[in-house]
Amino acid sequence: MYRKTGKRVIDVFLSICGLIVCAIPMLIIAILIKMDSKGPVLFKQERLGKDQKIFTIYKFRSMCQGAYEIGGIVKRSDDKRITRVGAFLRRTSLDELPQMFNIIRGDMAIVGPRPILPWEFYDYQNNSRYCRRYDVLPGLFCSIDIDYRASADRNLQFEMDAEYARNITFFNDLKLFSGVIKTVISGKNVYCEEIQKK
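The structure assignment produced for this chain is given below.
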């Protein structure tokens, strides 16, 4: 029941509440982005969603305009394409706030596998286990975020995503959400250089 309807109802309700609560902070962030560098406030990009269907994800822009076309994915904290405001947004994950609109639209969930670029899954399309990550909506947060965030390699991420998709429960989502909040507050593992050895 939770997997089929409850999760979606809770996601929409919390996202609407989140947008109301965060309306003023989001407005301030938008102003700071415009003051800090040229370009749009929002960053839009195509990602793979449920059933491997492409959708447009929204984020606050944290890099200079056209940064992805210049150098691809950011892997280091000293990447010159990251703006001053963007560095703070990435460290605190505040750049992800606009994805609440994606959740309301039905593109994403609060908890689920993080949506990746289409080409990042090309080498794994024949892996039936990894493909299970697309049985569910991608999430604002996922299980990999608790210990690794952006520092994890793809195999570990996809393995954890597949396990999450197989075992979705309210209590598991609540546990993951609580754990991710602690990780985000700590500001660790935002970049690949920050791999934490356990």
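Interim note for the steering committee: Strands lie at 42-48, 54-60, 109-111, 139-141. The CA atoms of residues 44 and 193 lie 25 Å apart.
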